[in-house]
Automatic annotation (TrEMBL):
Organism encoding this protein: Actinoallomurus spadix
Name of a matching Pfam family: DUF8034
Protein name in UniProt: Linalool dehydratase/isomerase domain-containing protein
Length: 641
């Protein structure tokens, strides 16, 4: 039986954040049903009648639904899980018919996109492990088992940048020329620009065979840094199975990249030749690989993949020194930062920052270089906060928090500003969330929930515009842009975690919840949660039962995967819970609220919430005391009922 605490503080005036949170859940329930009705077929596939003419596109189909099972895990509707599973199955059949998959898996493409494709799958595994384990192990074995042709254990490399279930898919493209369009050349420059004579450019960049031949020879084989995101797929299999071979593969593969980074002054290189040498096909350059430091978008792709690999290795082995795969490169990028306005920068991500910064595009602030080439560091942008935030959240280290404080001090804009915008990652509000967690912005919960509502309503309107449209291949992003499920605010406020690292990461969280009576993950209906502090010695969680009639029982779990231990919990206690009916109407004042304390020594705590009550829990956590697992408190040995 789990330790039990019963809330006793009466709820008289529900906090605004609690009401807004439950309203967001209700709005999201309406929104996902509308999207499913208007944009998907009976078997869950997307309404699409075109064909795909390149290797690109698989990610766009799956990404549309990536956070639907995440919403279920947060406390979304009971039937949302079945709907999410149906959409995965339908899209998988659809993509198989389009020739993009083999045995339900990507035939061969880069891991910048594969990582995006798999987020939906990872959340399904977390939500229903019993139904998804077979697939998860089969997919991971494509990399762990060398017989499939993706992994070279002698050199500890993934053999090619485009990899997956079809070992015959080699190179980076089909045909003679890489489809590098003129608009891409203007925005990003040319890959391997040093191969051409000084001042020369391909005559016709979308057809010139010189560029394609050099890219096939120099970039189409060997390992590349974004392949580190494959460690997320293998970690998912480890969490589901506990089989040591998955742990060993992660340690071996990520460990090899950590050694290469250490030999390169701490900066992770982006390419390894088939013989295991860094720069072996690029005349010694540690940069220039596919989706690497010189490619769009440099740090955005390399940093996210390295973060996925570092977190996977730390989770698999318990050794946080793997985080040093990321820290030196991050600090190097920051060290080359310059204060400027965004309008002065040479950014290749204008569309992203013009929305996220709005009027602050003209405010001088720290910009850091995302890319590196023969001319040195270039492509200056404001710092993307996903990686430094994920580092701090995992480690709780003083140095990782200090880095965030330094970045905040260098910013020319107010980190407390909350804007309603859509990023591809369903993220981007790490700065105001951090300000809230430091106690500097108590109004953040209501503002971020309002921003989330605004995005849902905006996307519902956008859906009206595109409903019934025959989507051509060029516009397949319209589904992602219309997806009305927004989860960043709920992840931050209820789980005390950042949004998942988008290019293939697994969820981070200080706490998660289960509905003890419905025996499913997520908050019960009418219950709201707020994590206002995530320090291990004092992780603070408020639970509110807005239901005026019913008791709800909530199981609080330490960590996204029960990897932490709750040592003790301090909680608010009302001296006289009967006062609300007997005394309040007569002006006798409120009763005293004191603190109780209980020992837990485990990953789960059961909280009983009588009608119209609230409770504040202050959890003392020991981080990463157990291997991550998708086990639930309803397993036989832990069942609270």
């Amino acid at each position: 039986m789990l330790p039990v605490i019963t809330a006793s503080v009466p709820l008289l005036e529900p906090p605004g954040w609690a009401i807004a949170q439950r309203q967001l859940f209700d709005l999201l329930d309406h929104a996902w049903r509308r999207f499913a009705r208007d944009f998907t077929g009976p078997d869950g596939r997307l309404l699409y009648n075109d064909r795909l003419t390149s290797r690109d596109g698989v990610d766009d189909f799956y990404e549309t639904f990536f956070n639907w099972p995440q919403l279920y895990l947060l406390g979304g509707a009971d039937d949302l899980l079945a709907a999410s599973e149906r959409h995965w199955e339908g899209v998988t059949r659809q993509l198989t018919e389009l020739g993009m998959l083999h045995e339900e898996y990507e035939r061969g493409y880069d891991w910048f996109h594969q990582g995006e494709s798999l987020l939906l799958f990872y959340f399904l595994c977390m939500a229903a492990p019993e139904r998804w384990t077979e697939r998860a192990l089969r997919f991971a074995d494509l990399y762990v088992d060398p017989a499939h042709g993706n992994y070279d254990p002698e050199h500890r490399i993934i053999r090619r940048p485009h990899n997956g279930s079809d070992p015959r898919r080699d190179g980076l493209f089909d045909g003679d020329a890489y489809p590098w369009l003129p608009k891409e050349a203007r925005m990003y420059g040319f890959p391997l620009d040093w191969v051409l004579p000084p001042g020369a450019e391909p005559e016709d960049p979308d057809r010139d065979p010189r560029l394609g031949a050099e890219m096939r020879r120099r970039m189409g084989v060997g390992d590349t840094a974004v392949n580190l995101a494959a460690s997320g797929l293998v970690l998912n299999a480890l969490i589901l199975s506990g089989e040591p071979r998955y742990r060993d593969w992660i340690a071996e593969y990520v460990g090899a990249w950590r050694e290469r980074a250490a030999a390169n002054g701490g900066i992770v290189p982006d390419n390894v030749a088939p013989d295991g040498t860094v720069g072996g096909l690029l005349e010694g350059r540690w940069y220039g690989g596919h989706y690497g430091w010189s490619w769009p978008h440099g740090w955005y792709s390399v940093g996210h993949a390295a973060m996925v690999g570092a977190l996977a290795a730390a989770a698999a082995t318990g050794d946080d020194s793997y985080l040093d795969l990321v820290r030196p490169a991050l600090d190097e990028v920051i060290a080359h930062g310059k204060v400027m306005t965004f309008t002065e920068a040479d950014s290749s991500l204008e569309s992203k920052w013009s929305v996220q910064l709005e009027e602050d595009v003209r405010t001088p602030t720290l910009h850091v270089p995302f890319r590196y080439g023969d001319r040195g560091w270039f492509d200056y942008n404001p710092m993307l906060m996903a990686v430094p935030t994920a580092l701090w959240h995992h480690s709780a280290a003083v140095a990782d928090r200090d880095r965030l404080e330094r970045l905040r001090a260098a910013a020319g804009y107010d980190w407390r500003m909350v804007r309603s915008f859509r990023s591809k990652e369903e993220a981007g509000h790490e700065e105001p969330w951090f300000a809230f967690l430091t106690g500097d912005d108590p109004g953040y919960p209501e503002r971020i929930l309002a921003a989330a509502q605004a995005q849902v309503r905006h996307r519902l309107t956008r859906m009206e515009r595109y409903r019934g449209m025959d989507v051509p291949e060029a516009d397949i992003h319209v589904w992602q842009q219309s997806n009305p499920v927004v989860t960043e605010a709920l992840v931050q406020l209820t789980w005390g975690g950042p949004q998942v690292v988008y290019n293939g990461g697994l969820q981070q969280a200080r706490v998660r919840y289960y509905d003890a009576d419905a025996r499913r993950p997520g908050l019960p209906s009418s219950v709201a949660a707020l994590v206002s502090r995530i320090d291990p010695e004092a992780t603070v969680v408020d639970l509110v039962n807005l239901d005026p009639e019913s008791v709800h029982r909530v199981i609080v779990q330490a960590g996204a995967c029960a990897e932490h231990t709750i040592r003790t919990v301090r909680h608010t206690v009302c001296d006289d819970p009967s006062w609300i009916g007997d005394m309040y109407d007569y002006g006798h004042g409120r009763p005293a609220v004191t603190s109780g304390e209980a020992r837990v020594d485990g990953p789960w705590l059961l909280v009983e919430l009588p009608r119209s009550t609230r409770i504040r829990l202050t959890l003392e956590l020991d981080l990463r005391t157990s291997p991550p697992s998708y086990r639930t408190p309803f397993d036989a040995d832990e069942d609270p009922s």
